[in-house]
Design brief:
The radius of gyration is 21 Å and the shape is flat. It has two domains: about 1-55, Lsr2, dimerisation domain (Wheat Germ Agglutinin (Isolectin 2), domain 1, 2-Layer Sandwich); about 65-109, Dihydrolipoamide Transferase (Irregular). The protein has a two-stranded antiparallel ribbon. It has helices spanning about 35-50, 75-85, 100-105, and strands at about 20-25, 30-35. The relative contact order is 0.09. The protein is an alpha+beta fold and about 110 residues long. It is built from three helices and two strands, in the order ββααα. The chain starts with 19 loop residues before the first strand and ends with a helix.
Length: about 110
Amino acid sequence: MAQRVQIILEDDYDGGVADSTVKFSLGGDEYEIDLSKENAAKMADALAPWVAHARRVGRGKRKPTAPGKPGGGSSTSDIRAWAQETGLEVSSRGRVSAEIREAYEKANS
């Protein structure tokens, strides 16, 4: 038996059809809202004067993560090979430590 699941976004602002989900943060809280292209543009225009004077924090836009690859999409085998080449002690199986992942990201960013 086949099933078809269809998700239809409703604009949280005016109840119309939404085109996308917009994520934003304010006061340390994270939010998301489903908006039409027009309402998303209105929101962006309304925030533009504030954004123009603001500082970007964090990494900004992140690289898409490939399925099954934690973090920035680097495979465990790539990190493990890099660690071995640089003389770091890393196991041949299992989880790669956070320290080695961080060192890899710093060296390859």
